[in-house]
Specification:
With about 180 residues, the protein is mainly β. The chain is about 5% helix and about 40% strand. The structure holds dtdp-4-keto-L-rhamnose (TDO). Belongs to the dTDP-4-dehydrorhamnose 3,5-epimerase family.
C-alpha cells in the first residue's frame, strides 16, 4: 500500500500494490502496522456497502458530531465516483476547504478520511458500489450534513446532479459563524 497525503492534513489517498498472476490479482487493503504509521490507531467497528444505480447521483455531504466523530475509509469496487471530503475541524488551517478525487474499481484507490470531515460522492457511471469502514457506530442522533452545493464550499461536481435523497436536499446551508465540529 502507498499512502499519499492529500492537501487536507491527515487525510490520505491509498493505492494498492496488487500481486498479479494469470489467475488475477491479490492485494492487501488494511494492515494495522502500516496504518499506525499514518496515526491510525482506532478499530474499524462498522463496515457498510452501498450501490447507487444512476450516474450523476450525489450522496452527501455527511458526518457525525462529537462524541461520535469518526474516521472513514472508502473504496469503490464497481464503477467510478468523484469522492469529496470537506475539512470541518475547528481551528484547522484548511477549515472549510474541500478535496475531490476519482475512486474507481479500475484505479482501486481508497480515501482515508479523518475525524472532523464531511464526506460525499457523485457517481460517474451507473451502478457504482462503495465500501465504507467506520471507527464509530451509526448514531442517528449524531448525524449531520452539509448541502452538496453550499456556496461557502463551492464544490466543483463534475456532472449535473440526477438524484439526491430527500435528506440530502434538506441539510442546512453553512453560515459565516460556523466554527466547525
Ligand atoms: C449511514 C447508515 C444508514 N443506515 C440506514 C439509515 C437509512 O434508513 C438508510 C439509508 O441511509 P442514508 O440515506 O443516510 O444513506 P447514505 O445517504 O448513503 O449515507 C452514506 O452517505 C455517504 C456519503 C457516507 O459517507 C456514509 O457514511 C453514509 O452517511 O440506511 C444505517 O442503518 N446505518 C448506517 O451506517
Amino acid at each position: 500500500m502507498n499512502f499519499t497525503p492529500t492537501p487536507l492534513s491527515s487525510s490520505y489517498l491509498i493505492d494498492l500494490n496488487p500481486f498479479q498472476d494469470e489467475r488475477g490479482w491479490f492485494a492487501r487493503y488494511f494492515s494495522k502496522d502500516l496504518f499506525e504509521q499514518i496515526g491510525h490507531t482506532k478499530e474499524w467497528v462498522q463496515m457498510n456497502h452501498s450501490v447507487t444505480y444512476k450516474k450523476g447521483t450525489i450522496r452527501g455531504m455527511h458526518f457525525q458530531v462529537k462524541p461520535y466523530r469518526e474516521v472513514k475509509m472508502v473504496r469503490c469496487i464497481a464503477g467510478s465516483v468523484y469522492d469529496v471530503i470537506v475539512d470541518l475541524r475547528e481551528g484547522s488551517p484548511t477549515f472549510l476547504q474541500w478535496y475531490g478525487v476519482e475512486l474507481s474499481a479500475a484505479n482501486r484507490r481508497m480515501l482515508y478520511i479523518p475525524e472532523g470531515f464531511a464526506h460525499g460522492f457523485q457517481c460517474l457511471a451507473d451502478n457504482c458500489e462503495l465500501l465504507y469502514h467506520h471507527t464509530e457506530f451509526y448514531t442517528p442522533a449524531a448525524e449531520a450534513g452539509l448541502r452538496y452545493n453550499d456556496p461557502l464550499l463551492n464544490i466543483a461536481w463534475p456532472l449535473p446532479v440526477t438524484l439526491l435523497s430527500p435528506r440530502d436536499e434538506k441539510h442546512p446551508y453553512l453560515t459565516e459563524d460556523f466554527k466547525g465540529i
